[in-house]
Design goal:
The protein has 292 residues and is an all-alpha fold. The chain folds into 2 domains: 62 residues; 223 residues, MetI-like (MetI-like fold), CATH 1.10.3720. It contains 13 helices and no strands. Helix 3 packs parallel to helix 6, helix 3 packs across helix 9 and helix 4 packs across helix 6. The chain is flat, with a radius of gyration of 25 Å. The chain starts with a helix and ends in a 5-residue tail after the last helix.
Length: 292
């Protein structure tokens, strides 16, 4: 009886592992199939949606060549615009979030909790509600400060900063709460100012959460389309997401291969940044999981 019970338990355990692995492989296939299909479309000589095969019989790199040779599609300029806007906006957002989070974490003042809840509440409203207001605001700013008005990257960065501070401030505050106050107090006793303690002690210790905020903000800005399409009107000012719209507004069926090639190349910077900093992401997200 005992032997039979052990064999039954062993078979049950094997069956559970098989089911678990089947679910895992199904999830992986579900996640990777769109990527494989897009890559297949980018090397498909037909370049159309109709009759596309997962494994093309005569693969070609012609669609990639079009991105670098056709003057109608300044792909590299769009890619550079996206990288520039995303990097600058993310860097400034990280610095501003760090200042705000440090104040909320270390200083106790009247209205502190109300301000925190207000920041979180504002994030609940979709950005589409502010399209008209943002457009008119940049139109007014452009009359006095032309380089920050409509159809400018500075104006787009300004808008991105406004939408990046709320949730990120909450996330960073939670991480700052885990850093002991004794470290700053020791620095203050040694003659450092509050700002010096913040820059030389807190920020180096908070590097994981700073990296997380930068990556999340960068990816969000890099792939953002709606705001950029409203603010940017010149072809040379387009970001990659807005520029890719060129391929689907004219003749979607004929430019599907070129669109797929641009999507594959456009995803590479994000993958490089993500995989190079993935260790910081895990420690940054788990370190801020405390009650503030």
């Amino acid at each position: 009886m005992r032997v039979g019970g052990k064999e039954l338990k062993k078979k049950t355990l094997i069956f559970k592992k098989v089911i678990q692995h089947m679910i895992i492989f199904a999830a992986i296939a579900f996640a990777f199939f769109p990527v494989v299909w897009i890559f297949s479309a980018s090397i498909n000589p037909g370049g159309t949606l109709y009759g596309q095969e997962l494994i093309p019989k005569h693969p070609t790199l012609e669609h990639y060549k079009v991105l670098f040779t056709d003057d109608r599609y300044p792909f590299m300029l769009w890619l550079w615009n996206s990288l520039k806007v995303s990097a600058i906006a993310s860097s400034i957002a990280v610095f501003l979030c760090a200042l705000a989070s440090y104040a909320f974490s270390r200083f106790h003042f009247r209205g502190r909790r109300t301000l925190l809840l207000t920041l979180l509440l504002v994030q609940m409203f979709p950005v589409m509600l502010a399209f008209v207001a943002l457009y008119l605001l940049l139109l007014w700013i452009g009359k006095y400060v032309p380089f920050m008005g409509l159809n400018t990257h500075a104006g787009l960065i300004l808008v991105y900063l406004g939408s990046a501070l709320g949730f990120n401030t909450w996330l960073m505050k939670g991480y700052f709460d885990t850093i002991p106050h004794d470290l700053e107090e020791a620095a203050l006793i040694d003659g450092a100012t509050r700002f010096q303690a913040f820059v030389k002690i807190i920020l180096p210790l908070a590097r994981p959460i700073l990296t997380v905020i930068f990556i999340l903000t960068f990816i969000g800005n890099y792939s953002e389309y709606l705001l950029a399409s409203v603010i940017l009107t010149g072809t040379k000012k387009y970001t990659l997401a807005v520029g890719l719209n060129f391929f689907i507004t004219t003749d979607y069926a004929r430019h599907w291969g070129t669109f797929a090639a641009a999507a594959i190349l456009g995803s590479l910077p994000v993958l490089v940044i993500f995989f190079s900093l993935q260790d910081q992401i895990i420690s940054g997200l788990t370190g801020g999981g405390v009650k503030g």
